[in-house]
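Tutorial, part two.
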Amino acid sequence: MALTLREIVESWDKDTVDASEMLSSIRNVYPNASDDEIREAVETVARGPFSPASSCAATTLSHLHGLDDPFDTASYWYNASEEEPTDPQWLVFCASYTYGWIINSGLSACYYEFDAQQYGDRIRVFEVIGATKAAEVMREADRAFGKAGPPPVVEDRSSFYSDDAVPLLEALNQKFWDCGDEIATRSHLYALENVTHFTPPRKWEPY
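Running the prediction step on this input gives:
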Protein backbone atom coordinates (compact mmCIF):
# COMPACT_ATOMS: atom_id res chain seq x y z
CA MET A 1 0.00 0.00 0.00
CA ALA A 2 1.36 3.41 -0.98
CA LEU A 3 2.22 5.86 1.75
CA THR A 4 -0.11 8.78 2.25
CA LEU A 5 1.16 12.31 1.73
CA ARG A 6 1.44 12.78 5.47
CA GLU A 7 3.28 9.48 5.93
CA ILE A 8 5.84 10.49 3.30
CA VAL A 9 6.54 13.67 5.23
CA GLU A 10 6.57 11.86 8.59
CA SER A 11 9.08 9.31 7.29
CA TRP A 12 11.68 11.99 6.58
CA ASP A 13 14.73 11.08 8.66
CA LYS A 14 17.52 13.06 7.05
CA ASP A 15 19.51 15.58 9.02
CA THR A 16 19.53 17.89 6.00
CA VAL A 17 16.69 20.40 5.89
CA ASP A 18 15.85 20.91 2.22
CA ALA A 19 12.39 22.02 1.12
CA SER A 20 13.05 21.27 -2.54
CA GLU A 21 14.16 17.74 -1.75
CA MET A 22 11.10 17.08 0.41
CA LEU A 23 8.75 18.45 -2.25
CA SER A 24 10.48 16.34 -4.89
CA SER A 25 10.07 13.22 -2.73
CA ILE A 26 6.36 13.93 -2.32
CA ARG A 27 5.76 14.63 -6.01
CA ASN A 28 7.65 11.50 -7.08
CA VAL A 29 4.96 9.45 -5.33
CA TYR A 30 2.01 11.80 -5.83
CA PRO A 31 2.68 13.75 -9.05
CA ASN A 32 -0.92 14.96 -9.23
CA ALA A 33 -1.20 16.17 -5.64
CA SER A 34 -2.38 19.75 -5.40
CA ASP A 35 -0.42 22.46 -3.61
CA ASP A 36 -3.17 22.62 -1.00
CA GLU A 37 -2.93 18.88 -0.32
CA ILE A 38 0.83 19.06 0.05
CA ARG A 39 0.58 22.15 2.24
CA GLU A 40 -1.89 20.41 4.55
CA ALA A 41 0.39 17.37 4.90
CA VAL A 42 3.54 19.33 5.69
CA GLU A 43 1.72 21.68 8.07
CA THR A 44 0.30 18.73 10.02
CA VAL A 45 3.77 17.23 10.48
CA ALA A 46 5.31 20.60 11.26
CA ARG A 47 2.96 20.95 14.25
CA GLY A 48 4.83 18.11 15.96
CA PRO A 49 5.99 15.95 17.55
CA PHE A 50 9.35 17.58 16.89
CA SER A 51 11.78 15.59 14.76
CA PRO A 52 13.91 15.94 11.62
CA ALA A 53 10.63 15.47 9.74
CA SER A 54 8.90 18.35 11.54
CA SER A 55 11.91 20.59 11.00
CA CYS A 56 12.01 19.93 7.26
CA ALA A 57 8.21 20.14 7.04
CA ALA A 58 8.27 23.59 8.66
CA THR A 59 11.01 24.68 6.26
CA THR A 60 8.93 23.37 3.35
CA LEU A 61 5.86 25.15 4.65
CA SER A 62 7.80 28.43 4.72
CA HIS A 63 8.88 27.77 1.15
CA LEU A 64 5.31 27.09 0.04
CA HIS A 65 4.28 30.42 1.54
CA GLY A 66 6.98 32.20 -0.43
CA LEU A 67 9.35 32.93 2.45
CA ASP A 68 13.10 32.72 2.25
CA ASP A 69 14.83 30.99 5.14
CA PRO A 70 13.74 33.09 8.17
CA PHE A 71 17.15 32.56 9.80
CA ASP A 72 18.83 34.18 6.79
CA THR A 73 16.29 37.00 6.73
CA ALA A 74 16.64 37.64 10.47
CA SER A 75 20.44 37.56 10.20
CA TYR A 76 20.28 40.15 7.43
CA TRP A 77 18.15 42.51 9.51
CA TYR A 78 20.42 42.03 12.52
CA ASN A 79 23.83 42.09 10.84
CA ALA A 80 23.57 43.87 7.51
CA SER A 81 20.65 46.28 7.62
CA GLU A 82 20.95 49.86 8.78
CA GLU A 83 17.56 49.46 10.45
CA GLU A 84 17.08 47.93 13.87
CA PRO A 85 15.57 44.44 13.71
CA THR A 86 12.00 44.11 14.93
CA ASP A 87 11.36 41.93 17.95
CA PRO A 88 10.25 38.91 15.86
CA GLN A 89 13.35 39.25 13.68
CA TRP A 90 15.56 39.53 16.75
CA LEU A 91 13.98 36.49 18.39
CA VAL A 92 14.50 34.23 15.37
CA PHE A 93 18.06 35.46 14.99
CA CYS A 94 18.70 34.96 18.69
CA ALA A 95 17.22 31.45 18.67
CA SER A 96 19.56 30.40 15.88
CA TYR A 97 22.53 32.24 17.39
CA THR A 98 21.97 30.76 20.84
CA TYR A 99 21.59 27.20 19.60
CA GLY A 100 24.63 27.44 17.34
CA TRP A 101 26.80 28.91 20.08
CA ILE A 102 25.74 26.30 22.63
CA ILE A 103 26.38 23.50 20.12
CA ASN A 104 29.96 24.76 19.81
CA SER A 105 30.68 25.95 23.35
CA GLY A 106 28.07 24.48 25.70
CA LEU A 107 25.49 26.19 27.91
CA SER A 108 28.16 28.04 29.86
CA ALA A 109 28.53 30.33 26.83
CA CYS A 110 25.16 31.93 27.68
CA TYR A 111 26.44 33.08 31.03
CA TYR A 112 30.05 33.99 30.27
CA GLU A 113 30.23 34.93 26.58
CA PHE A 114 26.86 36.39 25.50
CA ASP A 115 26.36 40.14 25.36
CA ALA A 116 23.79 41.74 27.65
CA GLN A 117 20.88 41.55 25.20
CA GLN A 118 21.51 37.94 24.21
CA TYR A 119 21.92 36.94 27.83
CA GLY A 120 18.81 38.82 28.90
CA ASP A 121 16.68 37.06 26.28
CA ARG A 122 18.13 33.57 26.72
CA ILE A 123 14.79 32.22 28.03
CA ARG A 124 12.32 34.66 26.51
CA VAL A 125 13.41 33.85 22.97
CA PHE A 126 12.34 30.23 23.31
CA GLU A 127 9.19 31.02 25.27
CA VAL A 128 7.94 33.43 22.62
CA ILE A 129 8.67 31.29 19.56
CA GLY A 130 7.09 28.29 21.30
CA ALA A 131 10.18 26.13 21.89
CA THR A 132 9.02 25.17 25.38
CA LYS A 133 11.49 22.33 25.99
CA ALA A 134 14.43 24.59 25.13
CA ALA A 135 13.07 27.27 27.46
CA GLU A 136 12.79 24.73 30.28
CA VAL A 137 16.38 23.58 29.79
CA MET A 138 17.49 27.20 30.06
CA ARG A 139 15.56 27.51 33.32
CA GLU A 140 17.27 24.35 34.59
CA ALA A 141 20.60 25.90 33.63
CA ASP A 142 19.77 28.99 35.68
CA ARG A 143 19.16 26.75 38.69
CA ALA A 144 22.79 25.64 38.49
CA PHE A 145 23.56 28.99 40.13
CA GLY A 146 21.44 28.25 43.19
CA LYS A 147 18.04 29.47 44.34
CA ALA A 148 18.86 33.08 43.57
CA GLY A 149 19.74 32.24 39.99
CA PRO A 150 22.65 33.66 37.99
CA PRO A 151 23.88 37.13 38.96
CA PRO A 152 22.80 39.83 36.48
CA VAL A 153 26.35 41.10 35.92
CA VAL A 154 28.76 38.94 33.92
CA GLU A 155 31.68 39.70 36.22
CA ASP A 156 29.69 38.32 39.15
CA ARG A 157 28.66 35.25 37.16
CA SER A 158 32.30 34.61 36.39
CA SER A 159 32.93 33.86 40.05
CA PHE A 160 30.90 30.70 39.57
CA TYR A 161 32.99 29.49 36.64
CA SER A 162 35.23 27.12 38.59
CA ASP A 163 32.63 26.20 41.17
CA ASP A 164 29.63 23.87 41.07
CA ALA A 165 27.80 25.64 38.24
CA VAL A 166 30.05 24.49 35.40
CA PRO A 167 29.64 20.71 35.79
CA LEU A 168 25.91 21.20 36.27
CA LEU A 169 25.73 23.20 33.05
CA GLU A 170 27.81 20.62 31.21
CA ALA A 171 25.39 17.90 32.32
CA LEU A 172 22.56 19.82 30.60
CA ASN A 173 24.35 20.34 27.28
CA GLN A 174 23.00 17.23 25.58
CA LYS A 175 19.50 17.97 26.80
CA PHE A 176 19.64 21.35 25.10
CA TRP A 177 21.27 20.00 21.94
CA ASP A 178 18.36 17.57 21.67
CA CYS A 179 16.04 20.59 21.31
CA GLY A 180 17.44 21.39 17.87
CA ASP A 181 14.46 20.09 15.92
CA GLU A 182 12.05 21.90 18.23
CA ILE A 183 13.93 25.19 17.84
CA ALA A 184 14.19 24.90 14.05
CA THR A 185 10.55 23.87 13.65
CA ARG A 186 9.14 26.52 15.93
CA SER A 187 11.35 29.25 14.45
CA HIS A 188 9.88 28.62 11.00
CA LEU A 189 6.32 28.46 12.33
CA TYR A 190 6.88 31.64 14.33
CA ALA A 191 8.12 33.37 11.18
CA LEU A 192 4.94 32.28 9.39
CA GLU A 193 2.89 33.66 12.28
CA ASN A 194 4.74 36.99 11.84
CA VAL A 195 5.18 36.89 8.09
CA THR A 196 5.39 40.65 7.54
CA HIS A 197 8.63 40.69 9.55
CA PHE A 198 10.26 38.02 7.38
CA THR A 199 9.72 39.39 3.91
CA PRO A 200 13.24 40.30 2.78
CA PRO A 201 14.11 43.54 1.00
CA ARG A 202 13.75 43.53 -2.77
CA LYS A 203 17.50 43.59 -3.30
CA TRP A 204 19.40 41.46 -0.86
CA GLU A 205 21.61 38.44 -0.55
CA PRO A 206 21.19 35.98 2.34
CA TYR A 207 23.61 36.97 5.06
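The radius of gyration is 19 Å. In part three we will examine how such features are distributed along the chain.
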